[in-house]
Amino acid sequence: MARAGGLERQQALRIAFYAVPAAILMLAVFAVPLGTVVIQSFTSEASPGFTLASYAKILSATLFVRVSWKTLEITLLATAFALLLAYPLAYYMAQQPPRRRAMLMILVLVPFWTSVLVKSFAFTVILGQSGLVNTAISWLGLPPVKLLFNRIGVIIGMSHFLVPFMVFPILSNLLNQPRDLVSAASILGAGKWRIFWRVTLPLSMPGVMAGVLLVMILSLGFYVVPALLGGRQDMMLANLVDFYAREIIDWPMASALSVILMGTAAIAAIILSLIPGGSAILGGDER
Amino acid sequence: MVNRTTAAPMVHLDNVSKNYGAVQALRSTHLEVRRGEFLTLLGPSGSGKTTLLNMIAGMTGPSDGQIWIDGRDVTEVPPSRRGIGMVFQNYALMPHMTIFQNIAFPLEIRRIPADEIRQRVMKVLEIVRLPNVAERKPKELSGGQQQRVSLARCIVYNPSLILMDEPLGALDKNLRDQMQLEIRRLHSELGITIVYVTHDQEEALNMSDRIMLMNGGSVEQLDTPHDLYYAPRTRFAAEFIGRSSLIPSEMIGGGQARLNDGSVVRVNRGANAGKGHLMVRPESMRLVQAGNVDAGMNALQGTLQGTLVTGGSITHFVAHSSNTTLIVQELANERRTAFTSGEQISVTWPVDAGIFLDR
Questions:
Q1: Between A181, A189, A198, which is nearest B92 by CB?
Q2: Fewer CB in 10 Å around end: N or C, chain B?
Q3: CATH of domain B11-230
């Protein structure tokens, strides 16, 4: 077996070789700056050397606490909204013949062809005071609705971006459910609704959980959407980082905030990798 | 309303057919399954047996024809309202429910009170001999146990008809034999009607009251296992079930068939004219020393090619000059004198053991 093991190691090395260029790139543009951020978060302008001053300041700042709650609130709201939109869509797609389903998948992915920034500007055109939606509303003789620079704008903008991330884990779960279970439930006397509530939905919970966590991880770091579509009230943690970095110009504070944000997302990602089917969504093995 | 409990057959297919686009999965078929009968749909894959079963279940609708269950036209009725049971090859137990919840599921749908549900679930678990698994999940049970739970889930709501789609296909040989007995026992104890699908001829022969042999989307023969084995009506039936010698020949009148080497044998069953095959089952044939043939028996000369001894039986393969291999099966303890390979011998069989098949 030692020989076989050696061969395996050789093969592993050969495969690793192909990852070298990407690894160097990631090291240069990701790991190094990230390390700098982490180190910087433990410094202070007042005194040289290692200090926890920034963290202490953050944790005692009312602004941080308020923005954290806001971030959590917006994240949960956007996630719930994305789930509400994505589940019926995934369910519908799972019922379609493969060719039609492939087309629908492309349609779901269309929003990715444009950057979040461009989409957010597009939303200001659609949702603005004299935008598409309000024009239509005024034609109906109704008073205009404020859809922009408030919570509604943020949730619309975020959900739009997040729905595909919710659709795919759920769809993949629904497609992997054994067909026979629905047939069996039907023969046993269950109607369509009962089959959905008692069989399909409970069995899809791992997919839902995976989608929810993935979308929450993404939501935590949202910056452009709340900045462009939200009001003063809708500041999220990423916007707070920006605030410290550019307006107050307190780099250690901005760094410490980033580290906290990253840690939160990392914990969520670890939970995601532990639920069945979740690791596949993070790019791991489907096992 | 007619007195349907006595008059009508359990299942009645009236000229039912199924097309998938241009492909004809099932040609126009007529079938009556009697009350309390164990009927098996037997055939190779693609023969239409599963299509037929799915149509009785209501999973697919027929392209043409009508389906009656228990005297009721159910052609347009969804599976959930046909009141039948079904057992699947991969058990189809709900993985997120306990065994108890799985079996209680059809009873909940029928709005049975909770205490009665408990009683009935426990009783069927006794019947399938799994009294202690109620709180377990399906994946904690072995394949055979899961299939018994699936049977329990089926009989708990007393359907008068149960469909089984290769229910033993995923089990190993020993378990399969045991489950065959189990299903037979349930069938006779509960007096239910069973329509069973399999591609395993041995299973079909063991279990069925009648077998409907299917091939290429149509019915080849519908008969008791005995008649299907001893009186096949087509070459396909003869070859699919058991082993046989099929000798190309032609009926020449007067109850005689001429083989393509010119030799003539007597035949008194099957078609009495035309070209086709003379079929004889291996256990009807005997090996004798060349020329030492009893009067009244058919005989062909041949060369012994080889002999296989499998436990209690011996199988001889004999090459005949009509370019056919004759298969002869004898019990091991019948004879002591052994023949050697390459020896010229005679193969004999009683006249009425042969059947002439023109299809």
A1: A181
A2: N
A3: 3.40.50.300
